[in-house]
Design goal:
With 300 residues, the protein is of the alpha/beta class. The chain has 14 helices and six strands. Helix 11 packs antiparallel against helix 12. It is globular and about 60 Å long.
Length: 300
């Protein structure tokens, strides 16, 4: 069960990225690639792979260019440091000691929530103890496919099997912070809205996966701007601001954290595809920090 929590955290942060892009981003030109070479003077090159939480086996497969870049990397990283201590800390943060969500949410909505959380790999005994913000996090992640290893887990597995040094960019606390920062008064209305619109979110996510298969970050960016949630008008402004602030703050932190492996060079890191495009996206911020980025494409 702890392993499922770990995968769900990465999935939820990926899915959060797929809902946090500001509504009006300037076009950043051609971004038709999921693999990017990162270079700076007098430093060996590094690589960024745009990752996605996918239920499509084809999308989960690494391209030949990606495998070649992995083969030359000395350091391999993901957004979340996936170790047992982090997973335990995450579970403690997400769960209450006593079941309370049914009472807080209400019987009717709780009954609808149970199968949605179960489809993400968790039994009713876990759902009953979820904090409202943790249930929101779960629903903002797509339903996982059985027997499909998430991309971040594959990168960790590759690093272990090939003797490469592994690193995580963010801690559990940093990854959970955006959800914990949702105002208490807003958590239940947002959770009810997610329950009502979960099927619509799944449909939009399939379009995002299709764009990823085409290695088209520009199309992903456009799809991210679709407001899939039918929030009450009174809640739309704070939700939009929450999305924007989270997107910008995460990219600022990620750029700062990446400077250490990128100054070493020979580093390969997987970052959510949603964090890359746009004028406030990771690619633009890395260029502003003095790095040269080149797109690499190859057929699936």
């Amino acid at each position: 069960m702890l392993a499922r929590f770990s995968s769900s955290l990465f999935a939820a942060m990926t899915a959060l990225s797929f809902t946090v892009v500001p509504p009006a981003l300037a076009d950043q030109g051609d971004q038709s690639a999921i693999l990017w070479k990162v270079e700076k003077a007098n430093t060996p090159p590094s690589w960024i792979l745009a990752t996605i939480q996918t239920t499509d086996g084809q999308a989960a497969e690494f391209t030949p260019s990606t495998m070649a870049a992995l083969g030359g990397a000395k350091y391999i990283g993901t957004e979340f440091h996936n170790d047992i201590n982090s997973v335990v800390d995450m579970a403690h943060a997400m769960l209450d000691e006593k079941p309370s969500l049914a009472q807080t949410l209400g019987a009717a909505d709780y009954a609808k929530l149970l199968p949605l959380i179960e489809s993400r790999g968790y039994p009713a005994s876990v759902t009953a103890k979820l904090k409202p913000w943790a249930a929101i996090m779960m629903l903002l992640s797509p339903r996982p496919a059985k027997d499909l290893i998430p991309m971040d887990d594959r990168l960790l597995k590759y690093s272990m099997e090939n003797g490469r040094k592994y690193f995580g960019i963010e801690s559990v606390e940093q990854q959970l912070a955006p959800y914990q920062a949702i105002p208490t008064a807003k958590q239940i209305p947002l959770l009810k809205t997610l329950i009502k619109n979960e099927a619509k979110l799944e449909q939009n996510y399939k379009l995002i996966v299709a764009a990823y298969l085409k290695q088209d970050l520009n199309q992903i960016q456009k799809l991210l701007q679709i407001e899939a949630l039918a929030l009450p008008e009174a809640d739309r402004a704070w939700y939009r601001q929450w999305r924007t602030d989270t997107f910008n703050q995460r990219n600022t932190v990620i750029v700062q954290r990446l400077q250490i492996p990128f100054e070493k060079g020979d580093s390969f890191v997987g970052i959510s595809a949603a964090q890359l495009p746009g004028k406030e996206g990771l690619l633009a911020k890395l260029r502003a920090a003095g790095y040269r980025l080149s797109a690499f494409t190859s057929a699936k």
